[in-house]
Structure formats: structure tokens, C-alpha cells
Design a protein that fits this description.
117 residues; three-stranded antiparallel beta sheet; 3 helices; hydrolase; Peptidase_S26; globular; Umud Fragment, subunit A; membrane; single chain; alpha+beta
Length: 117
Amino acid sequence: VTPRFRSPAVGDVVVFDAPAALKRVSGNSKAQLYVKRVAAVAGDRVRVDDDGGVSVNGAPRRSPAGDRVCDLPEARAELKRVLGDARRSKIAVEELSVPRGSVYVLGDCADVSVDSR
């Protein structure tokens, strides 16, 4: 992420080149740019529980409006058509502190997003 006018803040939508680790996780994706929402910034504490829920600094993260769009029947049908039964693995992450100069990003459609989790 290269900020042009200010540092990214929680809730901002960011566009970035995929780092090597993200490319490995996303397999054969031909995507060159990724679009995600900033969930935490440097110094924030992030935890992912067993069911994929995210808390930042001890408080549950509110789902953005984009998550609700993904729950619409039309969106669910399209996701199933494109992805079949594929779903993002739900892996619990012990609390971590976002390093200086970094942000923790999440996709709006959590069930299928490849993101910081």
C-alpha cells in the first residue's frame, strides 16, 4: 500500500499489489491488484476466533456493508456458481499486534476472501 495523501485508516478500502505470501495462498489467481478493507492499523491487536470472527483491540469487528451484500440470495448463487463449495478455511489466529508500517486487511465477503487472516 502506498499512501498518497495520508496513511490508511480503519475502514478505508485499499488497492495493492499482492505480496508473495498472498500469491502463494491464492494459487493460480491471475489477479494483479487486490482490493480489501483496512480492519486494523499499526499497533492494533487482532485476534481471529475458531469461527472466523475478528476482534480488534478486544472488541468484535463490525461487519462492513459489503458483507451483507454477499449474503443476498443472488450474490450467494453467483459465488456458488463461480466457486462451487469452496470456502475460506477458518483458522484461528492467536492475538497479534499489527507491525509498524503495516495494516491488517479483510475482504468484504469473508467466506471466500483471501486476506490477512
